[in-house]
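ERR on first pass: missing label on line 2. Operator R.T. fixed the label and resubmitted. Corrected input:
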Amino acid sequence: MKKIQIYDTTLRDGTQSEDINLNNEDKIKIAIRLDELGVDFIEGGWPGSNPVDRAFFSEIQNYQLKHARIAAFGSTHHPNFLPENDPNLRSLLDSGASVCTIFGKTWNIHATEALRVSEERNLEIIHDSVAYLHSQGKPVFFDAEHFFDGYKSNPEYALAAIGKAFKAGAEVLVLCDTNGGTLPSEVSAIVAEVRKALPEANIGIHTHNDCEMAVANSIAAVQTGAMHIQGTMNGVGERCGNANLCSIIPILELKCGGAYTTIPREKLQLITATSAYVSDVANMQPFSRQPFVGRSAFAHKGGIHASAVNRLAMLYEHVDPRELGNRQRVLLTELAGRANIVSMARRFGFHLDKDEPVVKGLLNELKTRSSMGYDYAAAEASVELLLLKKLARRGVREFFNLVQFRVLELKDSHGKEPYSEASVRVEVEGITEHTAATGHGPVNALDNALRKALIGFYPRLNEMRLLDFKVRVMTAANPDGGGTASVVRVLIESGDQQSRWVTVGVSYNIIEASWQALVDSITYKLYKDEYEKRKNETDD
Amino acid sequence: MKKIQIYDTTLRDGTQSEDINLNNEDKIKIAIRLDELGVDFIEGGWPGSNPVDRAFFSEIQNYQLKHARIAAFGSTHHPNFLPENDPNLRSLLDSGASVCTIFGKTWNIHATEALRVSEERNLEIIHDSVAYLHSQGKPVFFDAEHFFDGYKSNPEYALAAIGKAFKAGAEVLVLCDTNGGTLPSEVSAIVAEVRKALPEANIGIHTHNDCEMAVANSIAAVQTGAMHIQGTMNGVGERCGNANLCSIIPILELKCGGAYTTIPREKLQLITATSAYVSDVANMQPFSRQPFVGRSAFAHKGGIHASAVNRLAMLYEHVDPRELGNRQRVLLTELAGRANIVSMARRFGFHLDKDEPVVKGLLNELKTRSSMGYDYAAAEASVELLLLKKLARRGVREFFNLVQFRVLELKDSHGKEPYSEASVRVEVEGITEHTAATGHGPVNALDNALRKALIGFYPRLNEMRLLDFKVRVMTAANPDGGGTASVVRVLIESGDQQSRWVTVGVSYNIIEASWQALVDSITYKLYKDEYEKRKNETDD
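pass 2 clean. output:
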């Protein structure tokens, strides 16, 4: 098994994403999780370019990392300075990072057009910068910027540039597809040429996703002999992003016949959670279709797939989701079947037979309600609640009943936003609770009032948070022909420390649709807690 | 130049995405745009599996497509039927589609485990199904399900299966990576073997993105001789999605040295708009980092990149975004726009100079409000109104002023839907009008009450209809962290006999956001009528 170094640059190149802004605290949190995942190098930033990055390098020294080494990023020395007087190289050495990664120009047009020095002078700058850092006892990784474009336009010059870095002591020559325009067939051919020219050198790869090829290009380079991959969590990065380590690591671990090793194998099951954590800290909506780690990555919707995957998962799954800490999900649609309902009931401790009337009854109800616009494929928790309600005679209880709610919106010529107030009257175990609350908008006011009414009876509702709220207008389902009277579907995602769940509501009235999803969401939390409690009591 | 057929399956395999639900109207709209883009085939659905798909095939016949041919999808015949009595094959022929695409098992374990017939019987089924459709005069495309997994486990059987389809008259043998687990190096090797075994056959490729390799695998297949690619717009599809045609088409057109042609070259610049349109109809958040067509695809954030790209775009851009109908964005600068504003003002009879303060003022306001979530690219009418308001001193009038509105929602344990009532007090030319109305939900009630208040002053509002109402929750823009207090954007499309216009509102309160868009919509109608009237008087 060949060891492939994993070099994470989420904290440096990743932050070039248009929609990412990380402060120092965010960066430290992410670095700790990356270390737990077991990556080899964490590129923390460019200490020569800004103070946030310098703060990171100084603070991360307070943490005992288990596995990863910290790398600092910078450029070759400025044409006007000697290496030993260059402030950028100085800041790399002063950062306290274990590794210095510097980029240099290997495309001749960039030397003359961007750096504005002669081709010869550029080679000298590369050599002297690497040699100086090396002489100071630091391992140096050389990022060969625009290497593939450079090679395509002037192969001799591109090879000469990395040859200089190698001669000066660079430990890894990282070939960069900076503009992301290179195809895998070109990467394979060019990496092979580099290996021929510099058979002793360690080759790394750094790709961008402008052709949706960043992962493919990284794997192609490894298959041609590269031993070091630079990328980011979830593929974040400038323009279309960097190579996605959340795909690259599983591919090398699971899909290459055991030829390669990356992170410690037992850590692979942390990758789904690590991906989610980075999205969360960076305040980015996770991409549900993301390979390996996405919420939909192992979700089966089609009737044929759903029934086959129940029998033998490998028929429609190329890897076992549990190896990645992800899970299989068989979505409930009109097509999918009774077996799903039986296994769903089992999760809540009810043992049903496929042929019981309650199973068929639920399927029929799901079908009718789906045609009204309820999206049960997305809202599994609402399906589970429908099932539990049908099983009510077997001891499932109602947690609360609505007596009345009222929502008031008031806006006058002075106010920028309307005043929102909701009052809720509910009955819980024979006791009527009547509360009122304001909120950011009518749905939030209703949410606040309902929680206020219930919290005394069910204090664990404090653990629950509403994570996402989606509204879709379904023009076609509208009997009155569009406009403001359209039917809307609301999906609400909620979570507590243990899990996340999605519920649905449908109405031409957005308040009513939100209310349905809200009530389902809270009820689901209460059922879930009660079931856990019962199970623990039984286990004891 | 070799012609590569583009076969779009957004409407069939794409709808297997967890978060996509298209009704027939949506499907027709998307098909028309795909035809305008110039794809060769549009797979409309599986007529044998559900009534929505059947409705599509019957309705699409009312449209004169310019370029694309419609394909219907289905399976090989059921083991218990003769082909001529098989309802699934019948529904393909009855659909009226120009092409029949049927899938069959080419992985032996799927024949025995999923289809539950002998390996020999499965080959017979493939042959007889293709031969029957062929005998009925239909071109048949054979989707070789799980071909790559099948080939890896039993190459002789996999080749025998597609050999049967070829012999029976299949026009294209489409090799499917159904589970998405195959790497490009494997695709190249296996496609080469298939070409050796069946040198006369036309080879197609159908890939899934479970290894983030769907695009790379499609291109690898073409480079090894495939002449037909199946994929979806934006890569939507089951689990991690299908091969993304929005990347594949630009790669083949722009990145392969002119070796291939796909859609008519002048249509390539429609691809960004088509991608956005499909996301919009499917109510999916567009993926900003999407290659070629994404909002961030040519966005430069890094200081070095941003300044270099201003000098010479090719330094950091691998293709020219204008070829795709996309554009370069240098972030944190606002260079574009003045000329647009000048020409917009001209449409309303105002002659402005590019350097007037009002132009710069409007640009600044648009920038601020865009960062709050106002989508002015979609809502041009709201931009025009902002301009007209800035020009108020030049004689543009206010049509009405809000004094107060109030919206009440009431629901009790008896009512299924809440009672919705709105009262509106507005001032028009010094007269206060106070009205109330009920409605289907709060926004509809508000809409009804406002119109009732204004109709006596502006009878031409009777001509105006609200055509569409869209709501998008923008989690990222929410200062309070998600849930029911999220910021929402409302887009309202309105129309009269002459034109259609779109307006926008943004708030964490959906009533307020709807109110903003509603007021803009009505105001726009009134401005428009007044301007028409003035122009006609001048012409007389």
